[in-house]
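Changelog note: in this version the structure field was regenerated for every chain. One regenerated record is shown below for reference.
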Amino acid sequence: MVATFVPFCSNFTLKLRPSNPPSILAPLRKNQRGAKLKCFGVARPHILPSAFGEDGGLRVFVLSDLHTDYDENMNWIHSLSLDKYRDDVLIVPGDVAETISNFVSTMAMLKDRFERVFFVPGNHDLWCRREEDNYLDSIEKMSKLLDACRDLGVDTNPAILNGLGIVPLFSWYHESFDREMDLQGIRIPSLEMVCKDFHACKWPGDLSNEGASLALFFDAMNEKNNIMIEKIRRTCSQIITFSHFVPRPELCPEKRMLFYPKLPKIIGSDYLEDRIRSIHGSKETTSACHVFGHTHFCWDLVLDGIRYVQAPLAYPRERKKRMNGGEDWLPFCIFSNGRK
């Protein structure tokens, strides 16, 4: 049996010459920011549901940014087959729901459908605006979410499954993650006006969205898993790490292509990328994969030897605008050792 990471067509368009492109897009040598970039995609109008691993074996699926406070999204989760994924693993990189009741309902449904479910919290999961009387702050709410996961049998710690290491990574963004020059000559609303985190999250006195205190706090939460992570590094031939936030600036479109050009300031963490590299190593390999969420962009590319994947359910209005088949390809299979 050969373990494989399953390729996925990214949600962006590449212009190729000559006008008759090959069926498999050739890897790009470099992107505009100077990083080595390989992008694999299939020239087809829709992303199709994965058929890999139908003959059995471990399969790992990805689904981020569920946002089941929207009825359409909750109904979508409910519509997932109770039988198709019964022996499979699902990675959920955060933003499940804003309220804890919707969070518990969603994760319970996923646990009914998948053998194992892995989770790390996103920013929406820690919003307190609808439950201000229930929690002192977002840290206390996160503790309650992790307790709920434990009660449901949802994994929030690293684990080894049939020789595959899966490592959840806690993270938060910091503004200095954005190193691209700001756009000039246009009026752009402030982060405080656009980003609800500044108002919906509540932090204890020594933590705030200013500076890097939150990014450092959440990154330090991963230290408790160092012993297990080291075991995974020693014994696993393939490793999947995952986080909610974005580990590299290259995993976001350039500002001139964004509806909100200040988005890169509230999406990612350099500390997260450093931790990912400490787990996967710096050498180019086919055994390293990192899954993330948050921006609702579909991504699948290789940067400096690590494959980065985002497969979001996203908001209902966003799915309706997709050119790649809406949500029919979700949850997305990124790993299967069922292929011979």
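Spot check on this record: The longest helix spans residues 138-152. The chain has one domain: 25-180+194-336.
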